[in-house]
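Practice problem: predict the structure.
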Amino acid sequence: MRYRLHKLLYGPVGETQSATLERGTTTFPDGLKVHFLRGEFHFTRINQGILVHGEVDTAITAQCTRSLDEFEMPLHITLEDLLFTPSSVPTDDPDRRIGDDGWLDLTETLREEIILAIPINPIHPRFRNISSADLLQELDVADTDWLDIKLSTTDNHPSAHPHLEDNRGDI
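Answer:
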């Protein structure tokens, strides 16, 4: 996902350039696989470098935390970042620098934004509007054995547990 921004590097402040992103299934170097990438980027020349603003839609295969089924999870990523030109502010981060040749590689930046957009506990759409209580009611009898907790009335009384003393004492 490289873009040539040579004109913006040497253009006046305020000059803009746009680019679209249309890719099919993409696998990033760390193994992250997305089903597609569709979006648009707007690059604006500012005093210290180039401001990039973009919106990208994609989808990944995720595993539902409620059913453990895999499903396609759509993601919408908004990207806004300041990129430095070769002669501007020094930075050690190569992903935030535009090369001397005017090429910008957004691959790593986009990968990071996709990872940040993935929820910690993905839930399949068919389970999003269902409460946990409703899900528990749908379990088979064999599945609910671990839910049964039977307490007799004597078990709830303090005299049933002589090893637990009332340590209130006098103050």
